[in-house]
Amino acid sequence: MSQTVDRALSILPMLAEGPADLGQVAARLGVHKSTALRLLRTLDEHGLVYRQSDQRYRLGARLFALAQEAMESLDIREIAHPHLVRLNEECGHTVHLAVHEEGEVLYIDKVDSRYPVRMYSRIGRPVAVTVAAVAKLLLADLPEPERRALAEKLDYPRYTPRSTPDAAAFLAELERVREQGWATDLGGHEESINCVAAPVRGADGRVVAAMSVSAPNVVVTAEELLALLPLVRRTADAISGEYSGRTPVTDGTS
């Protein structure tokens, strides 16, 4: 039975390369045409493949529907939270997770620092879009026309002397973030708070969330916080791998 399932599943990545006829499928699997036909008929009955009028098979619509349903059921916060906790335990600083929804960038998770100085950020509250490191990552991933349109309609509050001053500077910053793959807020929102952030990507490579480490400069300097960038990026990559299905989830028993 396991061999039959393995053969059937092997057909799907083959058809992802393009339509194939019965003979091509049989040859790729190394089986007789009758065996390949039984497998294709079963997949066809479940809507996972579709036989075209030219007798070639392609991926079926049900497969795409299942993929969409699976993506929609994923809870990025649930997947990311254990990683955020481990990062917090390792560095001791405040860790955030944010997403871009309906024109706003919102914090959806937060693990507080171990020291008495706490940040005022709250889960469910929007971030300061023009300066926040997580916002820069999420907005930098937008197509260029969307980035430009957004930048031109934003206000640019001068929270501190380091705040982003205008649309031109914001677009330049987003382009820099897009190229380097990480972002910072070094006193742009609060002069005493620094932040470094990395993107969480889905299976298609698009940024689905952004996570960050933040700390007041009375605890660590900006340079010391930036030294944590490799750790932050590894954490974001681990979340990305689990979210996109590239990394198997272990149950801790092996």
Describe this structure in words.
This protein is an alpha+beta fold and 254 residues long. It is built from ten helices and seven strands. The protein has a five-stranded antiparallel β-sheet with strand order 4-3-7-6-5, with helices on both faces. A two-stranded antiparallel sheet has the order 1-2. The longest helix is centred in the first third of the chain and has 16 residues, at 76-91. The chain starts with a helix and ends in a 10-residue tail after the last helix. Residues 2-61 form the HTH iclR-type domain. This is IclR family transcriptional regulator. It holds the Pfam family IclR_C. Residues 62-245 form the IclR-ED domain. Keywords: DNA-binding, Transcription, Transcription regulation.
Fill in the keyword field for this structure.
alpha+beta, five-stranded antiparallel β-sheet, two-stranded antiparallel sheet, 10 helices, 46% helix, elongated, WH_DNA-bd_sf, DNA-binding, Tscrpt_reg_IclR_N, Tscrpt_reg_IclR_C
Give the topology.
Elements: H1 2-16, H2 22-29, H3 33-45, E1 49-51, E2 57-59, H4 61-73, H5 76-91, E3 94-101, E4 104-111, H6 133-140, H7 144-153, H8 167-180, E5 183-186, E6 193-201, E7 207-216, H9 222-226, H10 229-244
Antiparallel strand pairs: 1-2, 3-4, 3-7, 5-6, 6-7
Low-confidence stretches: 250-254
SSE topology string: HHHEEHHEEHHHEEEHH
- The counted number of beta strands is 7
What global shape is seen? Answer: elongated
Class inferred from helices and paired strands? alpha+beta
Helix content: 40-55%
Radius of gyration: 23 Å
Number of helices: 10
InterPro entries: GAF-like_dom_sf, HTH_MetabolicPath_Reg, Tscrpt_reg_IclR_C, Tscrpt_reg_IclR_N, WH-like_DNA-bd_sf, WH_DNA-bd_sf
Pfam families: HTH_IclR, IclR_C
Organism: Streptomyces thermocoprophilus
Keywords: DNA-binding, Transcription, Transcription regulation
